Amino acid sequence: MKRISSAPQSGSNLKDIRLLNRAVIFRAIRDAGAISRADLAKQTGLNPATLTHITRELLDRGLIEDAGSGEARVGRRSSLLRIHSKIGNILAVRLARHNIQGLITDLDLHEKVIHTTSSSFLSNPIDASMPALLELIEMVIEKSGVDRGTILGIGISAPGPLDADRGILIAPPNFPGWDSFPIRKTIEEKTGFSTILDNDANSAALAEKWFGSGRNLDNFVFILVEDGVGGGVVINGDLYRGQHDVAGEIGHTTIDRNGPICGCGNTGCLELYASPHAVESRVRQALMSGQKSLLSRWIDNDMNRISFELVAQAAKQGDAVAREALLEMAQVLGIAAVNVINSFDPQAIILGGKISSVGELILPVIQEYVDKRAISRSEQQLPVLISELGENAPLIGAFSLVLRELFQNPEFHPVTSSQR
To answer: Which strands form 220-225's sheet, in the order they lie side by side?
Structure first.
């Protein structure tokens, strides 16, 4: 994973968004490598008092450090600030239906090691999956060679719905047996590290806000299209979870009231029509009906070999069957985007996950739906953007969960209370 670049963003001087300002300052310092307070003030737009207070907080927490003096333009040399990357490392984990990803990195997002386990995870029973998860965590630590004492915490992104406060999944569709299982508590007890759990769409939205396509936006909705479809809502620069942590679950909003039954128990859910699995099903039906496609040769008539990745590859080569399947997906996502815009009135919609690889093919269709159907009082076009972080957004989001806690909670400690 390459270090992620981002443009500077203006901060705010309102007391109730200190978290956002910390993130803005942290990112500006990280992007510059080393920067003076004067240049930091110019890039963030923060007044001197706010800037001084927040940089002092970050220095006291050890998240940034003095980096010596820079060249003077006029008068005395100015002192520089930089990210204190050596203060520790964050372990990020992404749980998905069919695999687990683990990453360990310093605060500057310089990757130590990333490891993926391709065996089914959430689709498997807990007694098989939890040992695999704990084994992956230990494997990443061992391969990285980092001292366990430098690990600041573990961030985990997982499909929702879930209860972030209690660290559990809540009746997750398609994952029987995981309902109310204490994932966070189990990991903390087994590893000794403080752990934060949030859903993958929220995590990805946070990553986009701090490091990706949403860095210059205060209000946006992130739509994650993976095995299912999820959403993360950012309002006033931070995640909006709703009363019960289920805000943004757009994959289970109804598109067709007479549609098929979804794993969540609802009928005609969005993800039944807009997920990569739905695209694969459309292609499979087209091939079985005799339509000609590059895919027939590629899969050697084995329908089980059809994958979204192969469909994307064929579409980029102009295959009509693959393009038609993606077009139908884009049209449904266009309707979903309009519904989200009319509900939240955001600055932008950001699309991420597996569909990042076909952004150039589906984005014009979705944007056209938004331009024609969304309610807007502005003459400016409301943009639909593709994630800059691609399929890594939920994993980088898991990293961001811990970083956010370090910014927000002075009491956050890398070791759980039972291990102190």
So the answer is: 238-240, 229-235, 220-225, 348-353, 384-386
